[in-house]
Amino acid sequence: MESLSEKISSGYRVTPQELLELSNGATLSELGALAHAVRLAKHPDTTVTFVVDRNINYTNVCTSECKFCAFYSRVGEDGGYVLSRESFRQKIEETLELGGTQILLQGGMNPALTLDWYVDLLRWLTTTFPIHVHGFSPPEISWLADQSQLSIAETVEKLKEAGLKSIPGGGAEILVDEVRRQVSPNKCGVDKWLEVMRQAHLAGMRSTATMMFGHLETPAQIVEHLTRIRDLQDETGGFTAFIPWTFQPTNTDLDVEKATADAYLRVLALSRIFLDNVDNIQASWVTQGEKIAQVALFFGANDMGSTMIEENVVSAAGVDHMLPKEELIRVVASAGFTPVQRDCFYNHLAVCA
Ligand code: SF4
């Protein structure tokens, strides 16, 4: 009888139970070999893509108080901010000068900001600058819908009409309510996270999906998360990429050990093996550093994410890996792959060899 590894190598769809068995029983090198074979079957040309963009965190004021977050300020606390238009202008002009093609807009759940504020901001951004706005993760959109007493579909439509082009998959953490109740009790639950993505995809927008692991979850809950993503992707086909990354515990309220590189690479490989309907899997150089990011390219990843001209959330948790575009190109090329700058939809813009 064919072994599971042989079946995976010839395109077999792994069941959640089989993935859990691999998670518990396979060695690191077995997982890497399997994930790399699946990656090469999907992307035989060994290019590794990246996007030049900037994270802009429009406000750090947040009522959600997630236990893993070192970024937010409470309402009224010193250090709370909402970015001015002038700050946006400076950041975006700098991004464009550096060859950037998009901004990633994310922020806290700030009760001072209404849906009209978001709509006005999007209209101004998209009529002033030639830049793609990738913004507002499902918890932000779900919260905005509640604040505005609109449905999620109506809220998504208003943001889209104002110029929003695609949605980042942030705020997923682990898509299991039992875990979310412990790490982010005030954020939207699993069904709402998925509903925002479903409505965005139905409205014609694409999005990414993420998973932040290495805190309170079990291996079975990681499998459950991946299953929810694969099921929604079967339904809508709207996810462009999956981005697993590890929780960074410094300056947070969660007292757990930082996940090892071994744990990261195992979950990355499992993601590539299981998510047969998601084309792109991103390496997280921001949390892992450039050396593990290079190894990640042999564990299923075919994308290096963003150059991140600016990043505030992970760096608030004490992680400060920065890679300018030229460095990112060097890192990819020296791992034996061809670096290619892409846009938000993974269209190739320039080969950077
Ligand atoms: Fe707020 Fe986001 Fe931080 Fe949670 S992770 S506290 S939602 S800013």
TrEMBL record:
S-adenosyl-L-methionine binds at F68, E173. Binds 1 [4Fe-4S] cluster. The cluster is coordinated with 3 cysteines and an exchangeable S-adenosyl-L-methionine. NCBIfam families: CofH family radical SAM protein (TIGR00423), menaquin_MqnC (TIGR03699). SUPFAM superfamilies: Radical SAM enzymes (SSF102114). The gene is mqnC. Its cofactor is [4Fe-4S] cluster. One of its GO terms (molecular function) is 4 iron, 4 sulfur cluster binding. Belongs to the radical SAM superfamily. MqnC family. It catalyses: dehypoxanthine futalosine + S-adenosyl-L-methionine = cyclic dehypoxanthinylfutalosinate + 5'-deoxyadenosine + L-methionine + H(+). [4Fe-4S] cluster binds at C62, C66, C69. Residues 48-279 form the Radical SAM core domain. This is Cyclic dehypoxanthine futalosine synthase. One of its GO terms (biological process) is menaquinone biosynthetic process. Keywords: 4Fe-4S, Iron, Iron-sulfur, Menaquinone biosynthesis, Metal-binding, Oxidoreductase, S-adenosyl-L-methionine. Pathway: Quinol/quinone metabolism; menaquinone biosynthesis.
